[in-house]
Write a structure and sequence with these properties.
This protein is an alpha/beta fold. It has helices at 2-26, 40-52, 69-82, 114-122, 144-151, 178-194; strands at residues 30-34, 55-58, 100-106, 129-136, 156-157, 161-164. It has six helices and six strands. Strands 1, 2, 3, 4, 5 and 6 form a six-stranded parallel beta sheet that branches.
Length: 201
């Protein structure tokens, strides 16, 4: 009898924790900031928004990168070597009101793209939860997630998400569409559940 009572108490306690945890997640104000050149990172950002209810913001530069891929590659390499941070056209006045900030970007030069470095350095993200997500040409995240942690030393940086997108070098641009978008939706939902960031219905 005592064992039965104890078991019921444990179950009730577990349900109570689960409910309070869900409530805290759903009450958080979420911002989803992304940089996307070919639309793949944007596709992941949209899927995250659909599942979290966050506010979506695209990072735009005062001076956009050249349309030519190889010219942009050379420019990014130069910016990474010199530490140059391109000025952002995008302005977020209410950053202090957000509890959780998803930051999405492609892998450029196996590093975090300079515009995302600009964003992370420009805004005070202390005491916020930061969640990176990435699309790449199949070579992985490089040092990008580690750089996010380094640029957000006073933030809680959670486990990130990455997925292969297009290969712009080979003329493959938006790859996360149709069947691949459905695959991405499944993967993103599983990741969001793992990090307890799914919107409560």
């Amino acid at each position: 009898m005592k064992l039965l009572v104890l078991s019921l108490l444990l179950i009730a306690s577990s349900m109570s924790y689960s409910c309070s945890n869900a409530q805290s997640v759903s009450s958080k104000k979420i911002l989803i900031v992304y940089l996307s050149r070919t639309g793949n990172t944007k596709a992941i950002a949209e899927i995250i928004q659909a599942n979290t209810g966050g506010t979506l913001v695209a990072l735009e530069l005062e001076k956009p990168y050249p349309a030519d891929y190889q010219t942009t590659v050379r420019q990014v390499v130069d910016e990474n070597e010199s530490g140059y941070l391109p000025p952002l056209k995008t302005k977020i006045d209410s950053i202090k009101n957000y509890d959780v900030v998803f930051v999405g970007f492609p892998t450029w030069d196996m590093k975090l793209p300079p515009p995302m470095k600009s964003f992370l350095k420009q805004y005070d993200l202390s005491r916020k939860t930061i969640i990176p997500f990435n699309t790449n040409a199949g070579y992985g995240i490089g040092s990008s997630f580690q750089t996010v942690k380094e640029l957000c030393p006073n933030s809680n940086v959670l486990e990130g998400f990455e997925m292969k997108g297009g290969v712009e070098r080979d003329g493959q641009l938006l790859a996360i569409k149709d069947k691949k978008r459905s695959e991405a939706e499944t993967k993103v939902k599983k990741w969001l559940q793992k990090i307890k960031m799914v919107k409560q219905e």
